[in-house]
């Protein structure tokens, strides 16, 4: 089983997904394209967790780079050195996949929490900055008539729901791809051991 052939496809997909996560997370910092809310520290706690930049972004770029490198090395084992056999390639593939699983898992969890707790905004009733939808446990997502409770930033509920949902979906896709590659790596390693034993046996 050549790990590099399928890994390269997964690697390029993860590369695109990671870049999209980074962009989506950056947009969360600037509701409606305005920078003043970030400078005034009026962003939600889950916006500042860097789940798209760090988790779904840079931590997923690591397996993406490793998987692409496996293909470029032509499945020759340890980054082109055939004397290493395929053990190094299998180990690198599995370890990188687990890094991606951790990063994408973090992105999924924070995105889900961000959707559940709702945005941090200035409300017209309390006349203060708070989380007006925390107690709804995500129920506000289907109660559109209550979204107008947030006065500032304008359309912050739509902004957060859209971007957190995008990050949740992107993180889930990254998680699945990394999990698939981890399984392929383990199976590839087992297959390699079996083939080696068969070749050694008289």
UniProtKB/TrEMBL annotation:
Places the protein is found: Membrane
Keyword Cell inner membrane: no
Membrane-crossing segments per the record: 12-30, 50-70, 90-115, 161-180
A GO cellular component annotation in the UniProt record: membrane
Classification via PANTHER family: TRANSMEMBRANE 4 L6 FAMILY MEMBER 1, TRANSMEMBRANE 4 L6 FAMILY MEMBER 1-RELATED
Family: Belongs to the L6 tetraspanin family.
Protein name, entry field: Transmembrane 4 L6 family member 1
